[in-house]
Design a protein that fits this description.
The chain contains 14 helices and 6 strands. It is mainly alpha-helical. The chain folds into 2 domains: about 40 residues; about 350 residues, Glycosyltransferase. The strands form 3 sheets. Strands 1-2 form a two-stranded antiparallel sheet. A two-stranded antiparallel sheet has the order 3-4. Strands 5-6 form a two-stranded antiparallel ribbon. Helix 2 packs across helix 14, helix 6 runs parallel beside helix 8 and helix 10 packs parallel to helix 12. The radius of gyration is 24 Å and the shape is globular.
Length: about 425
């Protein structure tokens, strides 16, 4: 009897194990099929959608503002390197030449982000690793507040590549092999969750890289559309998102611009996005202080906009970020020129008095301040689209040979910062 019981129990365990194995095999087959379907979809859009500025040019090329920006761009930046700093350097210079002792061109900066051997040399650690579905950058660790060698926002590198106009075929080298931005996008899609904590930069990347397909499927078989993404962006409370809600603001301006060209949203969602941007534009105009800056309370319905608790960092952070969001609003939502002038004048004064070196925490708002003023400078030899801070000096028709990763000569000591 004991033998029979033992035999029965063994059979039950074997049956249970068989079901588990069948489930794992089925999930693997399903995941592979989903991955292949996504890959077929993504290959249809190799190059990202190109965004442009919608703001007026309020400063001439010979203005004090233009001269200040040019002077700043020629300064040698000695800020310790991190993933966030590299992203902002690409925002400042694009892929073109850099008149600096730190890098010779934006390609040198890109090389560090897309070649893990260079990342190890200059950041002190590996930042890219292979996954089941592609490749992924190291994410911030919640219990290590000063970790800055990877992404400081989810999918920020992918979004940066999209805004630079880099094709999905752009190579990325890891310690385990050669990959492309397509592999980076694939991993993001397969692990996408509409409820993920931070979604703004994921949204920017998807909006620019896969707008014509309008849908994608994650590894759990859940299919999403740009309508779903827009609805989630509209649900997020702006005062609880990063950089005072400006990342959320920015992602919706990008979505609105792409939708105006490709019609990727349904009419009801399109109207909701427009009205939200309209409300935020009104909040920006209402909340601008008489000195020209904005603070963290810009989106709140508060009669007392200025506050004694405003820090200089918060003012500097918000003013540059908000200006850049406004500069990409639809033409029908553009504010009066006076709004731009007041903000730019305040930023000009702050930048003029700022002493080198720019320390790490200030480098982000400093970058946005410089770019937001540059976006308002009239450049007769360039179109308004080329004036965009991420497209300046960048040949948007980069071919594969120009994107082969080469070992960069970076004139800065490797940093573990």
């Amino acid at each position: 009897m004991k033998y029979l019981n033992f035999k029965n129990k063994t059979c039950l365990k074997l049956i249970s194990l068989s079901f588990v194995l069948i489930g794992l095999i089925s999930f693997t087959i399903f995941s592979c099929k989903t991955s292949l379907n996504n890959k077929e979809m993504i290959l249809l859009d190799n190059k990202p959608f190109k965004i442009s500025l919608r703001c007026p040019s309020v400063f001439s090329g010979n203005s004090l503002e233009a001269k200040l920006v040019n002077s700043i761009l020629k300064q040698s930046q000695s800020v310790p390197l991190s993933g966030a700093v590299l992203c902002h350097l690409l925002k400042l210079y694009g892929l073109g030449s850099i008149d600096s002792s730190m890098f010779s061109s934006g390609m040198d900066v890109l090389n560090i982000l897309t070649d893990d051997s260079l990342a190890k040399e200059h950041l002190g650690t590996s930042i890219i690793f292979e996954t089941r579905y592609g490749i992924r950058y190291k994410s911030p660790v919640s219990h290590i507040p000063k970790q800055e060698d990877g992404e400081n926002h989810r999918d920020i590198f992918l979004a940066t590549f999209a805004e630079l106009g880099l094709p999905l075929a752009t190579p990325i080298n890891t310690s385990t092999g050669s990959f492309t931005i397509e592999n980076l996008l694939m991993d993001s899609i397969m692990n996408f969750d509409l409820q993920q904590e931070e979604i703004a930069w994921t949204a920017v990347a998807y909006i620019l890289y896969i707008p014509r397909q309008q849908k994608w499927t994650n590894r759990f078989g859940e299919t999403f559309t740009l309508n779903d993404l827009a609805t989630e962006l509209l649900k997020r409370p702006i005062h609880k998102t990063s950089c005072g809600g400006t990342h959320l603001f920015y992602s919706l301006t990008i979505l609105s611009q792409v939708d105006s060209k490709l019609g990727c949203l349904t009419d009801d969602i399109r109207n909701k996005v427009f009205h939200r941007l309209q409300n935020w534009k009104s909040s920006v105009v209402r909340s601008q202080t008489k000195d020209g800056y904005w603070n963290l309370k810009w989106a709140l319905q508060d009669d007392d906009i200025s506050s004694n608790t405003d820090t200089h960092f918060d003012k500097f952070l918000m003013t540059g970020h908000i200006l850049e969001c406004m500069q990409r609003l639809p033409s029908s939502l553009q504010p009066d020129t006076e709004v731009y002038l007041r903000a730019a004048n305040w930023l000009y004064s702050e930048l003029s008095e700022m002493q080198e070196p720019i320390y790490s925490r200030l480098f982000c708002p400093w970058t946005h301040a410089v770019c937001s003023i540059r976006n308002l400078v009239y450049l007769p030899e360039e179109s308004s689209a080329d004036k965009d801070s991420l497209c300046r000096k960048v040949n948007m028709d980069l071919d594969q040979s120009n994107l082969v990763i080469k070992r960069a000569t970076v004139l800065v000591a490797p940093s573990n910062y």
